[in-house]
Amino acid sequence: MRHLFAVSALAICLGCAPLCAQQAPPAQNSARPPAAPAASPSQPVSSAHDDSDELIRELDEATSANNSEGPAGMVPFTRGFNATLISTSQHDSTSGWSNLLTPNVAWRFNRHFSMNAEVPLYNYLNVSVVTGHNVVAGVVLNDIYTLETKNFLVGDTTIAGDFELHPRFLDYNFTTTLGTPTGNFPYGLGAGQYTYNINNHLEHNFFGWFDPEIELGIGDSSSLIDSSIRKSFVAVGEQAHFEAGLNIALPWFEVEFSSDAYEDMPLSRQTVTTITNKGKKGTVKLVKSTTQESIGEDNGFANTLDIPISSHFSLAGFYNRSLRNHEDTVGFSIAYLLRGNGTHRTR
């Protein structure tokens, strides 16, 4: 754990280094400087609006590879409030189809600090429930599970604060997230306690269309690592998480594709709840029991295709393959932003 915090501290120093390296402005001559020549009618005159558009463009490109937060502009690029509603339909190989609505509210204080909060609302979800028991000689050997569709279930509410720097050679985001136990814990939709996550995201843009990225962090809930894909289980306990990949701006209609490899590594004994009795995590269905560290481990690949429709609407398709749990998740989402993002790019 000490090594992880050391790497995180180094990432912060790298992000701040360009700011510290800026040269002080040259000393001004005590004499009055000559008056600037009047602009001729043929010369273009810059405006604050142009500067604002340029800032929005830079922030948009700098955050285009971070898919875990949702569509670009969900957290507004300029100071103020925004609200977003995301509808997601996904198919999990262990539990089938589900649909959820995720309302999000966000506020940007300045170009470096912002906050947002959201809560997932499941319109329908397949959950394994006990319908009987296998009994031999009066002894219950195991439970019999059946998938049942449940409606209008709530997940854990999350509150996140973000600090970002955009020097010339590197873009850096430091995000802290608090999870609150509002989720339906008996059905495996929550951690059952307050949880946290700390994440460092670094990326660099090449050629205006190619963004390699890395993430590293620490927390105590698997559901806070990547909220764009809802997994069929929640692992609670100290864990480090790592991610490396790339984001590519495709030449058609400003579509963007991202692909990442991830590893969630337990640092302590884990408590796991799940919505299904299938798959590697299904052995702890509906039982809040502390197990060995390895039960909470997960790794695999996550792929996302973002398709902008307008400044207020965006589409996204995603596919996640968990190598550790032998689980596939595929789906799509549509997002509406109350305050348009000013561009068509999506993160």
Keywords:
347 residues, mainly beta, 48% strand, globular, disordered N terminus
- Number of DSSP-assigned strands: 15
Segments where pLDDT lies below 50 for 5+ residues? Answer: 1-54, 60-68, 282-290, 343-347
| Number of helical stretches of at least 4 residues | 2
Helix content: under 10%
Strand pairing plus helix content: what structural class?
mainly beta
Which CATH-level-2 architecture? Answer: Beta Barrel
What's the CATH H-level homologous superfamily? monomeric porin ompg
Strand order across the biggest sheet?
Answer: 1-2-3-6-7-8-9-10-11-13-14-15
Short description:
The chain has 347 residues and is mainly β.
Furnish the topology, listing elements before pairings.
Blueprint: H1 2-20, H2 48-62, E1 80-92, E2 96-108, E3 113-118, E4 121-136, E5 139-154, E6 157-165, E7 171-180, E8 195-203, E9 210-221, E10 233-249, E11 256-266, E12 271-274, E13 298-308, E14 313-322, E15 327-337
Antiparallel strand pairs: 1-2, 1-15, 2-3, 2-4, 3-6, 4-5, 6-7, 7-8, 8-9, 9-10, 10-11, 10-12, 11-13, 13-14, 14-15
